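Example record

The entry below shows one chain as it appears in the dataset: sequence first, then structure tokens.
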Amino acid sequence: MRLTHQIFLATVTGLLLAASVQAAPDSEELVGTWYSERQQDGETMKWLTRRMDNQKYAALFLVCNGEDLSWVQKEIGEWQFKNGELVETMMSMEDMNGKKQAPQGEGVDTTYVDLSIEGDALHYQKKNSDTEFNFDRVADGYQIKCK
């Protein structure tokens, strides 16, 4: 009986440890709408990114000072997940200063590494940078605002 109890405890412990490990995502798991929020210098920065299964993305970025909007930026582009890296290629960007197109079909690439998904939480880091991002999966159509 004692050996059976030890095997049971070892099995349960192994399953718990396996469940708590963050898994590297695959391309399909990145499809959807992701939200992030962070406080910096007394302002709240909010990101909403929608990655579609046709490898396109749309992103909205807000900077809020309390309930007041300080900055807004929208991006449209393409994304790919290759060799464990997420590469987003911005094709156009619009902010409070106007719209900017990428030069003749050449997008601006940003690469993210150390991707992991745990439940509905996505984590990654900008390549060659200390900047980390934590996103939560939200429903398509999710709205962000400064309230």
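Notes for this example: Residues 2-20 form the longest helix (19 residues). The chain has two helices and nine strands.
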